[in-house]
Design a protein that fits this description.
Shape: elongated
Strand content: under 5%
Helix content: 55-70%
Keywords: Membrane, Transmembrane, Transmembrane helix
Number of strands: 2
Protein name: DUF4383 domain-containing protein
Pfam family, one: DUF4383
Organism: Streptomyces alkaliterrae
């Protein structure tokens, strides 16, 4: 799997990436800001309830920083937003596992409790899905901009012989392998 920046920038999937990054960023900014408003102790390992989750000052700071990064990715958009969503989503899933490993211990620097772990897994999978949507798949359709960028030899309109190609079903493009064999 290649996640290169030379892939198409201007396509309709960029809107999905932007909305995913913006939604995740705004949620994290709200959570972190509520933690700062409660004046939480920075390294308190027991934490206090904020919006149904346990939090401390460090978790509030991390939430605000990651939220700002996601909002910035939403503003920039394109492949950067997609890649940022995938990275942040993966880190959220990893933080869920890390939080699960340190529950009820002195090493719990982010004051995680079980609802935090579940939130980290859910938020991570959501953001990860927004980042991967339409970009990472074994069966991308041939009109997908990422498929065309990875298969330029099949995506060029000159390679298609119009008289030899049957009309595809509505919304689908012809199979390039079938088009090439029909032209021979």
């Amino acid at each position: 799997m290649r996640l290169s920046d030379e892939l198409p920038q201007d396509h309709r999937l960029a809107t999905v990436y932007r909305y995913g990054a913006a939604t995740g960023g705004v949620l994290l900014l709200a959570f972190g800001t509520l933690g700062f408003l409660d004046r939480l102790a920075f390294f308190d390992t027991t934490g206090r309830q904020v919006a149904g989750l346990s939090s401390n000052g460090l978790l509030s700071l991390v939430s605000v920083l990651v939220g700002l990064a996601l909002v910035a990715g939403a503003v920039i958009g394109g492949n950067l937003a997609s890649t940022l969503n995938m990275i942040v989503g993966g880190l959220f899933v990893l933080s869920g596992f890390a939080g699960l490993a340190v529950l009820d211990s002195g090493a719990n620097l982010l004051a995680f409790r079980m609802p935090n772990v579940i939130f980290a897994f859910a938020m991570g999978l959501l953001i990860l899905t927004f980042g991967m949507y339409g970009r990472v798949s074994g069966g991308l359709p041939h009109d997908n901009p990422y498929w065309r960028a990875r298969h330029p030899e099949h995506a060029t309109p000159q390679a298609v012989a119009p008289q030899a190609v049957a009309l595809p079903a509505r919304g689908r493009t012809p199979d390039p392998v079938a088009v090439e064999s029909a032209g021979d």
